[in-house]
TrEMBL record:
<feature type="domain" description="N-acetyltransferase">
    <location>
        <begin position="3"/>
        <end position="170"/>
    </location>
</feature>
<dbReference type="Pfam" id="PF00583">
    <property type="entry name" value="Acetyltransf_1"/>
</dbReference>
<dbReference type="InterPro" id="IPR000182">
    <property type="entry name" value="GNAT_dom"/>
</dbReference>
<dbReference type="InterPro" id="IPR016181">
    <property type="entry name" value="Acyl_CoA_acyltransferase"/>
</dbReference>
<keyword id="KW-0808">Transferase</keyword>
<protein>
    <submittedName>
        <fullName>GNAT family N-acetyltransferase</fullName>
    </submittedName>
</protein>
<keyword id="KW-0012">Acyltransferase</keyword>
Length: 170
């Protein structure tokens, strides 16, 4: 499959929300508390798109959105109070709301999205990627390990402790 990574448009909001809605249900079925409190929601997606934070992974052959994430530069207040220490103190890209379409799971697309996020970060002249996840999000924890992220400590994100990671790009 040929894929593209591009900024989301307002016309992408409905398929993005469908992907997130199913990801929320998957997290619940796995017994996780992550994303079980009304976040994310369609308003968050609309705000991501409006602010230019939303990005989609697209199957170029069918023009189908197969994944979603939000990318922000130096914009995560929760990261200022880490219980631990970041690897760097400079500019960083943070990503949230990573989700792959249920119809495309198991095809390595989450890792492809992460590689696309790395390319985006390099193109901005930034060498630090930061992210956080629930302690029970085994899929994301495996990806962090596989892609060379370093555990930096815990952050308090929307009232819950989360594992915080950073990756330095060469």
């Amino acid at each position: 499959m040929q894929i593209a990574f591009r900024q989301a448009t307002s016309g992408d909001a409905a398929p993005i929300w469908e992907i997130l809605k199913k990801a929320i249900a998957r997290r619940k079925a796995e017994g996780s508390d992550q994303w079980q409190d009304g976040y994310p929601n369609p308003e968050v997606v609309a705000r991501d798109i409006e602010n230019g934070y939303g990005y989609v992974l697209v199957d170029k052959d069918t023009d189908t959105i197969v994944g979603y994430c939000a990318l922000l530069i130096n914009d995560e207040p929760a990261y200022e109070a880490i219980d631990g220490a970041w690897l760097t103190n400079g500019d960083f890209v943070v990503y949230h709301r990573v989700a792959i379409s249920e119809d495309y799971l198991g095809q390595g697309l989450a890792q492809q999205m992460m590689k696309s996020i790395e390319e985006y970060t390099r193109a901005k002249g930034i060498v630090s990627l930061r992210a956080d996840t629930n302690f029970d999000n085994q899929g994301m924890l495996r990806i962090f390990d596989k892609l060379g992220y370093v555990y930096c400590g815990e952050v308090d994100f929307r009232g819950a402790k989360r594992r915080a990671y950073e990756k330095l790009l060469q």
